[in-house]
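Teaching assistant's notes for section 4

Start the section by putting this record on the projector. Ask students to predict, before seeing the second block, whether Domain-containing 5-like will look compact or extended. Collect guesses on the board.
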Amino acid sequence: MSSNVTIEVTSHKDKVSVVRQRAILFGAELIHIFISTLSETFQANGMLTQVVLTSSLWTSLYCFVCYFWRSKSYEWSCRSVSLLHALLITSLSYYCTFIQGPWPFTDAGGPNTPFQESIAIISVGYFIFDFFWCLYFQTDGQTMLCHHFVSIIALAICLITGSYGTEIVATIFGSEISNPLLQCRWFLKYSGNRDTAIADLVDAAFILTFTYSWECLRYHLDGKIL
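Reveal the predicted structure now:
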């Protein structure tokens, strides 16, 4: 009886391993096809090199965090990189949208500015890194993988066409502004401080920030606000 159970458990683990390997290979093939298809367009102005460089930098940063904080989990290291990306890209997209302009709700669809392209390149490099990380470690479901894949495609279209940078950067700001708080919630839970006053404050700030950003979008789309 015991040997039968052992065989069944081993068989299940083998099946999971095979499925995981196939998923990784499938995702890698998708990215390879995607990058190959776009390579000629990017290479025309050196954007492919910049995308590869930024993705390599995010990956190197992750390896750096893993090396110097060996006692932490791989997810802890990845979320540290995600937190840094969220803080950086939120600050840059805020400046680009609200200070430098143009305003996305009146001047959408125009040509990209160099600053907008820089923001898009930084983000697409990060999303490529995080897509492969999620694919390999299987910590998130298909929803997150689809989110990252769609984000990569949207940012690539912006870079290829040389347009839509205004609304893309505004979208990045709206979607990333609550991300630092989301990561802080996870770190508090990881460190055993989930049931503390600070955690409650972070939760409240996250809910307010997330709701406000989406409500502002709804206001500009239909002229109404709660």
